[in-house]
């Protein structure tokens, strides 16, 4: 019981910050959608797609290597950080040189507009900041410092909102408003993380993990070994980029920036579920790796099975709830973004299956069989490109959402299959399939049936069905909540 309490408390330390960020996001998104037209909002989305693509090839999967070797016995974490950063920054430098020579053409293709020099500087600046932010934030996560993780996220979001107001005052209805806010806010918080890291390495701050001081060892991992482990993740990251950006590129190509802007607004609404996904990922990655390295095999597998059941239960309920109340949420965006209510349903599948995937895929990472992730990624990429090419010209944003949602299901299924082959945990995939079918049916209905009454009745019926199917998780969650409440009452 104490272990469960400790695990739950650790998760909450990561979650509370993202929950506040979620609330701030509900403030930020309507502000942006009212300050910027759908065309300009669509252009801001293309900026995110571009810098994310540059980042994928720059990072070379070394962030995954950092996670994999962080808890290795007697590891020299200083050397690990330096090796990952130095290699990544060398790649970034090369990509920046290429971009500088082609910036005029690349920027015009992205934004369909002649851009000023500041856009090029923002692309370069945000990419460099992203590299430092990734590894410095990973250091916080691997130390399982949930409070700092949460506070940094809150600070970044508050800065972002303030900067949106400030830049909009000078630039007005211009996509650069979002660019400046993103780059400067992340720059400030990353600078803070850099100072913190310096203080840790000079001994002025002592990080603690699970009540024990985190000491630095002497064993060094060669850069060749780090790259060898990390480079297969390029395909995985590319797949994730395609799933988050191919839809935007498809809409730009076969539709227009107006539809792209509406679609990006719908994506921002999915922040409700992405918040849970990011929180869980920040908590889960170091915990799973530590359990594998230090725990007993059968106890570790039992822990993974239970975590998967509970996460699946709450994920499915959250997705159904978001689909059911999507039209209420869309009212916040403004009249010109009302079409987003048809796009949201299938997008809810994205964070749901991505979160479950983070549990089931751990076996591949433990056994260093990353090529299986490449196979899953390759199949998903082909499906995603074909789906967008077929559906976007006919259904615009709804077609892009359908393709994205189904792509994540395919990725989850293939990745989980291979993970079970190399590290058998015996997850319950039959109930997962039933839950997935219910979600797909509801998403189809919400995307194409205009009657709110019909989709609401379906959603309520599906919630009851899920509670029956996942009754063991429901009972476990209820009993845990009841025990917490009883302890609170006794203290009073």
Parts with pLDDT < 50 across at least 5 consecutive residues: 1-6
Report the order of strands and helices.
HHHHHHHEEHHHHHHHHHHHHHH
Q: What sort of overall outline do the alpha carbons produce when their principal axes are compared?
A: globular
Q: How many DSSP H or I helices? A: 21
Helix content: over 70%
User: Order of strands side by side in the largest beta sheet?
Assistant: 1-2
Reported for the largest beta sheet, the result is:
2 strands, antiparallel
pLDDT averaged residue by residue = 80
Strand tally: 2
Distance between the termini: 22 Å
Strand content: under 5%
Structural class: mainly alpha
Number of domains: 2
Mind telling me the C-alpha Rg? 22 Å
Q: What does it look like?
A:
With 492 residues, the chain is mostly helical. It has 2 domains: 21-231, no CATH class; 235-487, no CATH class. The protein is built from 21 helices and 2 strands. It has helices spanning 2-35, 38-59, 62-70, 77-111, 117-142, 146-171, 176-201, 223-230, 233-254, 257-269, 271-294, 297-324, 326-330, 344-347, 349-360, 362-366, 371-395, 397-422, 429-448, 452-469, 471-491; strands at residues 208-209, 212-213. It has a two-stranded antiparallel ribbon. A hairpin with a 2-residue loop joins strand 1 (208-209) and strand 2. The model is unreliable at 1-6 (pLDDT under 50).
List its salient traits.
globular, 2 domains, 492 residues, mainly alpha
List the helices and strands and how they pair.
Layout: H1 2-35, H2 38-59, H3 62-70, H4 77-111, H5 117-142, H6 146-171, H7 176-201, E1 208-209, E2 212-213, H8 223-230, H9 233-254, H10 257-269, H11 271-294, H12 297-324, H13 326-330, H14 344-347, H15 349-360, H16 362-366, H17 371-395, H18 397-422, H19 429-448, H20 452-469, H21 471-491
Antiparallel strand pairs: 1-2
Helix pairs in contact: 1-6, 1-11, 2-4, 2-5, 2-9, 2-10, 3-4, 3-5, 3-8, 4-5, 5-7, 6-7, 9-17, 9-18, 11-12, 11-15, 12-15, 12-19, 12-20, 15-18, 17-18, 19-20, 20-21
């Amino acid at each position: 019981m104490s272990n469960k309490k400790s695990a739950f408390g650790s998760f909450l330390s990561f979650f509370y910050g993202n929950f506040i960020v979620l609330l701030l996001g509900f403030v930020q998104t309507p502000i942006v959608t009212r300050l910027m037209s759908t065309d300009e909002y669509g252009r801001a989305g293309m900026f995110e797609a571009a810098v994310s693509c540059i980042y994928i090839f720059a990072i070379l999967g070394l962030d995954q290597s950092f996670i994999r070797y962080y808890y290795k016995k007697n590891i020299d974490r200083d050397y690990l950080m330096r090796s990952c950063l130095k290699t990544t920054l060398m790649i970034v430098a090369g990509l920046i040189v290429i971009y500088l020579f082609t910036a005029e053409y690349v920027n015009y293709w992205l934004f369909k507009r002649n851009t000023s020099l500041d856009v090029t500087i923002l692309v370069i600046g945000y990419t460099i900041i992203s590299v430092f932010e990734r590894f410095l934030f990973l250091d916080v996560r691997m130390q399982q410092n949930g409070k700092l993780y949460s506070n940094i996220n809150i600070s970044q979001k508050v800065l972002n909102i303030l900067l949106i107001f400030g830049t909009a005052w000078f630039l007005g209805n211009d996509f650069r408003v979002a660019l400046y806010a993103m780059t400067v806010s992340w720059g400030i918080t990353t600078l803070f993380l850099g100072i913190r890291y310096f203080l840790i390495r000079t001994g002025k701050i002592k990080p603690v993990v699970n009540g024990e001081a985190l000491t630095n060892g002497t064993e060094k991992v060669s850069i060749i070994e780090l790259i060898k482990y990390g480079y297969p993740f390029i395909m995985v990251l590319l797949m994730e980029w395609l799933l988050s950006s191919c839809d935007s590129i498809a809409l730009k190509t076969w539709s227009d920036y107006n539809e792209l802007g509406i679609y990006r607004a719908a994506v921002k609404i999915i922040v409700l579920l992405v918040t849970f996904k990011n929180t869980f990922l920040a908590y889960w990655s170091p915990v799973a790796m530590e359990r594998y390295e230090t725990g007993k095999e059968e106890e570790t597998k039992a822990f993974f099975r239970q975590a998967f059941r509970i996460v699946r239960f709450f994920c499915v309920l959250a997705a159904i709830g978001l689909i059911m109340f999507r039209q209420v949420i869309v009212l916040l965006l403004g009249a010109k973004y009302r079409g987003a209510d048809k796009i949201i349903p299938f997008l809810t599948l994205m964070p749901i299956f991505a979160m479950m995937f983070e549990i089931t895929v751990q076996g591949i990472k433990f056994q260093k069989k990353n090529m299986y992730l490449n196979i899953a990624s390759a199949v998903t990429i082909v499906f995603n490109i074909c789906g967008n090419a077929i559906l976007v010209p006919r259904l615009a944003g709804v077609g892009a959402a359908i393709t994205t949602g189904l792509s994540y299901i395919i990725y989850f299924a293939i990745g989980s299959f291979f993970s079970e082959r190399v590290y058998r945990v015996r997850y319950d995939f039959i109930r997962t399939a039933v839950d997935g079918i219910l979600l797909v049916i509801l998403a189809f209905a919400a995307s194409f049936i205009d009657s709110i009454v019909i989709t609401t009745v379906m959603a309520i019926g599906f919630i009851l069905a899920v509670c029956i199917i996942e009754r063991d998780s429901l009972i476990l969650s209820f009993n845990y909540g009841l025990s917490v409440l009883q302890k609170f009452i006794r203290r009073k």
